[in-house]
Fold this protein.
Amino acid sequence: MAVVVTRNLTKVFKEGELGAVNNVNLETREGEFLVFLGPSGSGKTTLLRMIAGLETPTSGEILIGGRVVNDLSPRERRIAMVFQSYALYPHLSVYKNIAFPLKAQNVKKELHKAKVEWASSLLGIGALLDRKPRELSGGERQRVALARAIVREPAVFLLDEPLSNLDAKLRASAREELERFHRRVGTTTIYVTHDQVEAMAMGDRVMVLNKGVVRQLGTPTEVYDNPADTFVATFLGSPPMNLAELGDVIVGFRPEHFRPASAAAGDVVPFRLRVENIEYLGSEWIVSGTLAGGKLDAKKVFSRLSSAQNLSLGGAYDFAVPQRELKFFDRATEKRVESKAVSWQ
Amino acid sequence: MAIARRKIKSFGAAQSPLLGAAMFSPAVLYILLLVAGPFFLAIFYAFSDARIGNTELHYVGLENFRSILQSPSFRVAIRNSLIFTICSQIVVIVGANILAIALEQPFRGRGFIRFLILLPWVAPIALGAIGWKWILDSIYSVISWVLVALHFYKPFNAPMWLGEPHLAIASVLLVHSWRLMPFSTVILLAGRTAIPKDIPEAAAVDGAGFWRTQLQIVIPMMRPILSVAVLFGLIFTFTDMTVVYILTAGGPFDSTQTLPSLAFALGIQGSDLAAGAAISLFLVPLLVIIAYFMLRVAHRAEVT
């Protein structure tokens, strides 16, 4: 097991252009499940590939287990990586796929069988060892890729969107399985995804990236409840946080805190909402509309409610947000600032 | 695919039942006239005493086969055919793999180098062989000149590349390999680009070095395309007589004769059509085997 550290890590693909990864400083914790979350093009995969040794950094350092590994090849870094496509060797059986890292790292041949059996039973694919990858389902392939990664007992696990090729139903169960798997082996894991649900559900900590820059690193609760800037605030949450410009600040509040005034209590900010759309999602309702009156007149906002049965399209209703749920961001830098009193009218 | 095929079929049937037949009859005619005709003629001649300029023809049974099997030139020709075919494939596959690996990475001028490498394939084989004949000439050889200039040999004492049996065999082999290399390189390059980048990267992360990645992952994954290259190469080399004919004309002392060149030398130049036909029939068994494997490869490529 090991800790991964990056210092001012930068990758510029084309000189003169903005870096794909800019000045990333990161330190994982022993055995943690760290998620890199960001939209496509945010540099999360490039960052992972630099840690893996598949991409050479333009500047900065990478340390694994306290050792600078910039000049080490992937094989010397004691890492394992699961690719988005799984990258199974199509001409080799499942057994030989899993045994390949052992062979490549000159593990004694007598040990191969036991290790392959250990890894495959850990992932419940013991019955598939004679098959070829093309004879497996998506979920089975993903397990083979994981078994191939775990078999050499790496210091760090790198997972590049391993669930994105699975269908929605399978993804949920695979996610749970991955979490259980991580708890069992306890290896430091870095997981790349663009899916906020995966990030929130699986991550011990989540690192939110945009345009190659780390926007925030924190536990799922921290990044959701206390976003560091407007990007994090709107990237997490569905629908995203409502943001409104008020003077020199941007005020934000989550749709689930924007509720009918009758349900609110204590110190609240009142609004008048003209309902324009109502979506029923089974367990919840998404209501959207525009505010009426005050400085935020005609501002489009979302509300997330457990019931919207007493609301109707076109109607205007009294809504409110608890004062303590308001987040404030600097209008120029879009960074989070202290709560302050603002005038709404 | 299946839908498209059915559509085409019904379209043809609606137009005219003869349309299909008319469309492929040129191909059938071509094969009948230029492949099947000469083939059956060769079988016919092989059991006769046909000679050029002689209108009479008698059935002689297996006499032609008996006499060529006893001829030392024939045994040398069979040996050479096998040596040239098999050894040139080994040289070509190793060389083409090295070239393909080198040409896979982008570098300045790669397009031009690829063009240069492809040149031997697009140039007529006869011209290429004549070029080599000069390069390997006993007096004007540029190779000998370089070796003399580097003091490996005394002037006028350099090896006779095409004049000594072993060197002549090696020279023919070299030219065959030179000729096939571009084709195999292009095929293998295509095969390499078809492999997803993830796979060699996964191998690198798994701890495999360059050789293990190439030998255990990349090249085995290219096996179908590799066998296409090999089978084509086998046929091109085994049936070729241009290189031998131009470089050595089978000499010295029939030491570089191959089955096709010997058949030509005896049958056309020596007027003994029957013997030439009998010799060329010895090509058939090997070609049938190769054709069988080609069909299998083609079939497998269709299935997967």
